[in-house]
Design goal:
The protein is α+β, with helices and mostly antiparallel strands. The protein has ten helices and 37 strands.
């Protein structure tokens, strides 16, 4: 590695507190401009990568609520409490953030033609307002463009507004909703609304119809040609939308458990259309069945069908009435918890609960409802991956070779690359220092940090003492790792924020402790923590202090998110028997024998499913037990190499 001139910050022999951060000269960039503004975690367009979603090139899973009335101006359309353009939506999103810890960041809402029509004339005011409020609060929106039912779309009776096979064949493109005061055909309306918002990243995906099905008549039987009619409609509308909008995903909108046109294998056929990106299922009336449905039209069947198509599935509606839990909100929350655990466990990528409202009817989720905490528990936004140098959400097999100071990376999306950066005695300190979703090459040498950021370029900064342990972590949740060290001699943590130049020192630990900073409470902020003789001491940013006995003094701590709930799990690797012991925050205790005493544990998410995988590095070979793709072995590196995912394992 080349030598760079760095202005040195005095190392701390004792803990020193600064009212103002100390002046630091940074080679290549000033402290004010060294990190340009980047997108927040909810910016960017949601994309599909096979059976998973991605956001900003990272795996993306979500939870949220239905707010069907976000665009409702008045009670006349019978669409519940009208939010219109007032403060109603802003207050609702504030309450959802409060109850979920700001982790349930998606809502599904009606964007029907009637809701953008005033006195027979198109008026986008409410839609513009809803999107602006969602954007300001960091939420994404799933706009539903039409309704199978008459509700909220201006029709005088349910029968008049119900969509039959004739509508799916011809009326959607030939007949305006004159009876409901709608100025355009459904097809023309969709063309216009998509054109207006095609460049808006606040929209997560479009959905054609709420609960589409194709019976002969209102309350009638399925037509023998229902599947043909539904596919024809979907193909036409999908082609139209994709011709206008290349940014957003498209969902048809189905209940999924056997409705006309999407029964059995017909569900798979309609979702096989190239314009449809994501499958959907609705879950009602199966409170004690976490994975609902039968062997023909159940959720597991739909997951399997969509997996065969290479497409993800989300639960667009899930509801449990309080009349089914004797009015007990916590009992209902517990039922939701069991469903979320099971459904995310089989590969669902998102779940939307019906519905958030200030009303008090059976399905209402209101401010303070414990179900909001369940949404927060499973809401993950962007899933971070350790040692992900190409930003695709999948951890990369990678080594540092002390003999040459070279990094060798087997990037999962871009292939092999090598980089000369470091010397033999360096301590590895990789992390995402510029919030672009990519791990940056970095080393710590005798109190100086050398960082090659993938977006913001080279940075050299003196911070710490030679005997400190580098522990870069995102303690403030902005997506950018702070420079941080743990000082074994006094149990002190010292951090420097590259964005605001703020220094902080915290006494947490003692001589002999092992630093294990990670996000243990799932709030998006890494927590200060140490491992001491089998006891974990954590100062969690949201939940406060805790101490947990787990492991023994000879174990190697390997904290990671093994169950994919967004919270780092306490875990150890025991060299004496090659066994991993994990106390998963969602699934509980797990023990698995995987490795031998001389192995170096390298836990990381090697199959981009949002779950860390057990893995070891042994004499140049990687042995990985992937949670989704199963076992693999890869020869990469030499016996004397330092595997990068092992950088912070003692």
């Amino acid at each position: 590695m080349y030598h760079y001139r760095v202005a040195y910050l005095t190392t701390f022999a004792t803990i020193i507190f600064f009212a103002v951060a100390p002046a630091i000269s940074i080679f290549g960039h000033t402290a004010d401009d060294n990190l340009s503004a980047v997108e927040s975690s909810q910016d960017g367009f949601v994309k599909r990568d096979g059976t998973r979603l991605t956001l900003n090139n990272r795996p993306y899973k979500f939870t949220g609520v239905q707010i069907k009335h976000a665009n409702t101006l008045n009670w006349a359309v019978s669409c519940a409490e009208p939010f219109g353009t007032g403060e109603g939506l802003n207050k609702a999103l504030t309450e959802i953030d409060k109850g979920s810890g700001s982790r349930a960041k998606v809502f599904r809402s009606w964007f029907f033609q009637k809701l953008s029509t005033v006195n027979g004339v198109r008026d986008w005011t409410t839609f513009d307002h809803t999107i602006a409020v969602a954007k300001a609060k960091g939420f994404k929106v799933i706009p539903v463009l039409g309704n199978q039912w008459a509700k909220c779309d201006g029709w005088e009776t349910d029968e008049l507004g119900f969509k039959t096979e004739q509508w799916y064949n011809t009326n959607y493109k030939t007949m305006a909703g004159t009876g409901a005061g709608l100025p355009q055909t459904y097809r023309d309306y969709v063309r216009d609304v998509v054109t207006r918002y095609k460049d808006e990243p606040t929209i997560a995906m479009w959905q054609l119809i709420n609960e589409s099905e194709v019976p002969i008549s209102f309350g009638g039987n399925c037509s023998p040609t229902a599947h043909i009619s539904l596919r024809g409609f979907t193909d036409d509308m999908g082609t139209l939308i994709k011709g206008i909008d290349s940014n957003h995903l498209l969902s048809l909108g189905t209940i999924g458990n056997g409705q006309c046109g999407a029964t059995g294998d017909d569900y798979k056929k309609v979702h096989a259309l190239p314009s449809i990106d994501i499958c959907e299922y609705h879950d009602y009336g199966n409170n004690n069945s976490p994975i609902p449905g039968d062997q023909w039209n159940g959720m597991q069947v739909r997951i399997n069908q969509c997996r065969e198509l290479g497409k993800p599935l989300f639960v667009g509606e899930i509801g449990i009435g309080t009349n089914e839990t004797s009015g007990n909100l916590q009992t209902r929350a517990n039922l939701f918890d069991a469903k979320f655990a099971a459904q995310f466990g089989i590969g669902v990528v998102g779940i939307i609960v019906w519905e958030f409202t200030n009303d008090t009817y059976n399905y209402a989720i209101s401010p303070g409802d414990p179900t909001l905490a369940v949404l927060g528990k499973y809401g993950m936004a962007n899933v971070k991956s350790n040692a992900d140098f190409d930003g695709d959400g999948e951890s990369d097999i990678s080594v540092f070779r002390p003999s040459t100071g070279a990094w060798y990376l087997l990037n999962s999306s871009s292939g092999f690359t090598g980089s000369q950066f470091g010397v033999a005695t360096d301590k590895l300190a990789p992390a995402d220092f510029d919030a672009d979703g990519k791990t940056d090459i970095a080393v710590f040498r005798n109190g100086t940090w050398y960082i090659q950021r993938s977006m913001a370029g080279f940075l050299g900064i003196a911070f710490g003492e030679a005997t400190d342990t580098p522990m870069p972590a995102d303690f403030d949740g902005d997506g950018k790792a702070e420079i941080a060290v743990f000082r074994p001699s006094n149990g002190g943590w010292y951090t420097f924020n590259l964005v605001n130049n703020k220094f902080n020192a915290v006494q947490f630990g003692q001589v002999g402790d092992v630093p294990v900073a990670a996000d243990y409470d799932g709030d998006g902020k890494d927590d200060i923590a140490v491992f001491r003789n089998g006891i974990w001491y954590q100062q969690r940013s949201q939940l406060g202090f805790t101490g947990v006995q787990f492991g023994d003094s000879n174990d190697k701590p390997v904290p990671a998110d093994y169950d994919g709930d967004g919270k780092t799990d306490i875990a150890v690797f025991r060299p004496s028997n090659g066994t991993w012991y994990m106390q998963q925050s969602m699934k509980g205790f797990v023990g698995a024998q995987f490795g031998v005493s001389t192995d170096k544990p390298v836990p990381a998410d090697y199959d981009s499913d949002g779950k860390a995988d057990m893995a070891v590095f042994r004499d140049g070979t990687w042995y990985i037990q992937r949670s989704q793709l199963g076992f693999t072995g890869v020869a990469f590196g030499m016996a004397t190499d330092m595997p990068v995912p092992n950088a912070f394992v003692p």
